[in-house]
Amino acid sequence: MNYTNLKEENTNYAQISGKIIGAPELSHQVEGENFYEFKVEVDRLSKIKDTIPVTVSERTLMGKELHAGDFLKVTGEYRSYNKLMQEKSKLVLHLFAKEIELCQNDEFINEVKLTGFICKEPIYRKTPFNREICDVLLAVNRTNYHKSDYIPCIMWGRNARFMANQTIGCKVEIIGRIQSREYIKAVSENETETKTAYEVSCQRIGLLSNISGMKTTSDLQEGEVINN
């Protein structure tokens, strides 16, 4: 299926608020306009911290000076691009900022809403503690652009079982949060390195019908597991 030929509206919305880690650095230029990258640390209710890469243009900054430790709110889209690293293509995820607001409070926000198409077979598995998980790659069309963003998503419990039964090409709506997760990768027999994976942790899933427009929703709290 050619996902980019299907017209979508408001398919990608993300908002976070948290503390900047490190000073913004120049990333690249497009037609003479500078784009900067920095990371924002967002606390979960469990106090675990998600570290989220953000990209912003100089026009969006509009003279704002951002410094490490500043608390801010970022609203935009969760996007992806392919980057060549060590002769291999890597999917890079980032929050593309459309609005930035410096804040005085410490209310942490982490919300994302995506509408897209399943573009790889869902991968269902269970942990050693019998926790159900399903990994899904979602193709999300960019409004007014002939391209899609490919966003890894993870579901839990009944949501995982629900999504495991869906097929490539299904149109779904998900609501969740942006999650960072560290893991250990073996690079040789005697050497390992710590990597960071980024994904959307889903809390609600809606299956959208292209024919009737009907929607059914699996509405569970993140991490809830229902035993059969």
Approximate shape: globular
How far from one another are the termini? 35 Å
Specify the biggest β-sheet.
Answer: 12 strands, mixed
Q: What count of structural domains?
A: 2
Counted beta strands: 12
Query: Structural class of the secondary elements?
Result: mainly beta
Mean pLDDT: 86
CATH architecture of the largest domain: Beta Barrel
- What is the CATH topology assignment of the largest domain? OB fold (Dihydrolipoamide Acetyltransferase, E2P)
What value does the Rg take, in angstroms?
18 Å
Strand fraction: over 45%
Provide the low-confidence segments as ranges. 2-8, 210-228
Proportion of helical residues: under 10%
State the order of secondary-structure elements, H for helix, E for strand.
EEEHEEEEEEHEEE
CATH class of the largest domain: Mainly Beta
Task: Supply the CATH superfamily name of the largest domain.
Answer: Nucleic acid-binding proteins
Count of alpha and pi helical runs: 2
